[in-house]
Amino acid sequence: MSHAEPARAPALIADIGGTNARFALIDEPGGEPRSLRVLPTRGHATIDAAIEAYLADESGPRPDRGAIAIANPVTGDVVRMTNHDWQFSITAVRDALGFRELRVLNDFTALALSLPLLRPSELMQVGGGTPTEGAAKGLVGPGTGLGVSGLLPDGRGGWVPIDGEGGHVSFSPVDALEIEILRWALERHAHVSAERLVSGSLGLPNLYQALAAIEGRSAEALSPPEIVTRGSDGSCALCARVLDVFCGMLGTIAGNLAVTLGARGGVYIGGGILPRFPERFAASAFRARFEHRGRFADYLRPIPCYLINAGDAALRGASAALASR
Questions:
Q1: Distance between CA 72 and CA 263 in Å, rounded?
Q2: According to the CATH classification, is domain 11-112+313-323 in 3.30.420.40?
Q3: Please, what's the b/e burial string for 192-207 (b: 16 or more CB within 10 A of its CB; e: otherwise)?
Q4: Strands 11-16 and 65-70
Q5: How far is residue 115 from each of residues 131, 149, 150, 259, 308, measured CA to CA in Å?
Q6: Model confidence at 325, in pLDDT bands (50, 70, 90)?
C-alpha cells in the first residue's frame, strides 16, 4: 500500500507599503507568486496580525519561511516603518508565525531584484535607446514615499541590489518655479527631501498647496488619490499642474540617479502613482528633465527609462531574495 508524500510547505512573500500590504505564496524559492491578496495596512494593528489574516483564508500546508519587502530601512532586528505606525522585531515575528526563516528587506531592494525578471509587456519605455548589456540599472519610484535603488553588476553575470534611502536626499530645484516651491516648503520644514515633494502621501499634497499659494489660487483639502484623479481627467487645472510639475521633478531625480550610478543599463520607474496616468507621464517634461544635464546631456540621451506596470514585481523580487540564500 503506497502512501502519498506530504505536501511541501510553501513560503510566504509580502510587499508592505505605507498604504497596502500585498501577500502571496510561492511553492519554491524564486517561484512565481500565487494566491495574491492585498490588505490595507491600517486595517491591522500589527504586521503579524495582517499576515495571520491573509493565511486564515489560505488552505493547504502553512508556510514555514518567508520574505517580506517593506517600505523602510532594514538595519537590524527592529523595524520601525517611516510612513506607517507598525514596528516589530523580525525575530519575534518569525517566532510568532512559527517560521524557520524570515527575511525582511527594503521594498525597493526587492523591486530591484525583480528587474531582470520583468517581461517586455510590463515595461513602457520613455525615451532613450537600447540599454547597455551588463551596465548598472537605476530604480526610482514615487508611491506612498519615494523609493530609490538599483542593480550593480557583480562581475560574474549576476547582480547586486542597492540597499539605500535615496528618497531622503535634499531636494534640488532647477528652475524659478521650483525655487519658489522650495521656499514655500522651507517655511514649513527644517529639511526638504526629494520625498517631501515627489511622493504620494507627502509630495502631491505639498505640491498642490505650494502651487495654490504661489499662483494665488484657492486650494481644497484633497487627498493624493483625488489630486491624481482630477489632474488626470482634466477636471481640475491646478491638479493637472501638480502632476506636470511632479513629473518634471521626478525627471531630475532620475537623471541624478543615472549619472550617479552610471546606469547605462536603464533607469526603471516604479511605485503606484505613475501607472495611473502613463500617457500623461510619457508626454510630460520627465524625459527632457532627465536629459537636462548641460555637458552630460549626450551621456544621458541614449539611456532608456522604463515605467514598470507589474503589480507583483516586488513580490517576485522577494521570491528571488529567498532563492539567493
A1: 24
A2: yes
A3: bbbbbbbbbbbbbbbb
A4: parallel
A5: 13, 11, 9, 19, 9
A6: low
- Residues forming CATH 3.30.420.40 domain(s) in the chain: 11-112+313-323
The residues pairing with 13 across neighbouring beta strands, listed in sequence order, are: 24, 67
Asked if residue 1 has pLDDT above 50, the reply is no
Residue in the structure block whose three cell numbers are 515605467: 307
**What are 264-323's pLDDT values in tens digits?**
999 999 999 999 999 999 999 999 999 999 999 999 999 999 999 998 999 999 999 998
Binding-site members for ATP are 14-19
In contact, 33 and 15? CB cutoff 8 Å: no
Of the candidates 123, 9, 115, the residue with the CA atom closest to the CA atom of residue 58: 9
Q: In whole angstroms, how far apart are CA 89 and each of 14, 17, 19, 80, 92?
A: 16, 17, 20, 9, 5
Binding residues: 14-19
Name the one residue in this structure whose C-alpha cell is 517600505: 71
| Site of grid cell 527631501 | 193
Q: Which of 128, 109, 155 is nearest to 263 (CA)?
A: 128
In this prediction the pTM is 0.91
We find that the CATH architecture of domain 119-308 is 3-Layer(aba) Sandwich (3.40)
Record the cell numbers describing residue 268, joined without a space: 526603471
The grid coordinates listed for 164 are 539605500
